[in-house]
Amino acid sequence: MTTLRDALRDFCAARDWHRYHTPKNLVMALSVEAAELVEHFQWATPEESLALAPEKRAEVADEIADVLIYLTELADVLGIDPIAAAREKIVKNAVKYPPPL
């Protein structure tokens, strides 16, 4: 994750994009990219969503990458370690949603 974050920092710095990467702008871009990911599955049956054609799978991979990139940049700008946050959330979810007996 650190390697990805650092690569994104370098990519943005080379283009002087950091000034645009406010939390507001990043979360808006993240939302747009998540919606683009949803479009690939809209109206698909569960079976169709599990059996993507290679071209569709590549398009979905691009959208997943866009979502991950904006999420990584948002976490970076806010000083949040997304891996630590995910681990903490798993612990919270385990308490909230215990396994059935």
Task: Please summarize what this structure is.
The protein is mainly α. The protein has helices at residues 2-15, 23-39, 46-50, 54-78, 82-96.
- The parts where pLDDT drops under 50 for at least 5 residues are none
Q: What is the overall pLDDT average?
A: 97
For the biggest sheet, the summary is: none
Shape: flat
Name the beta content range. under 5%
- Second CATH tier, the architecture: Orthogonal Bundle
Please give a structural write-up:
This protein has a single domain, classed as MazG-like (Helix Hairpins, Orthogonal Bundle), CATH 1.10.287.1080. The longest helix is centred in the middle third of the chain and has 25 residues. The protein is flat, with a radius of gyration of 17 Å. It has 101 residues and is an all-alpha fold.
Structure characteristics:
101 residues; mainly alpha; Helix Hairpins; 5 helices; flat
Secondary structure layout plus pairing:
Blueprint: H1 2-15, H2 23-39, H3 46-50, H4 54-78, H5 82-96
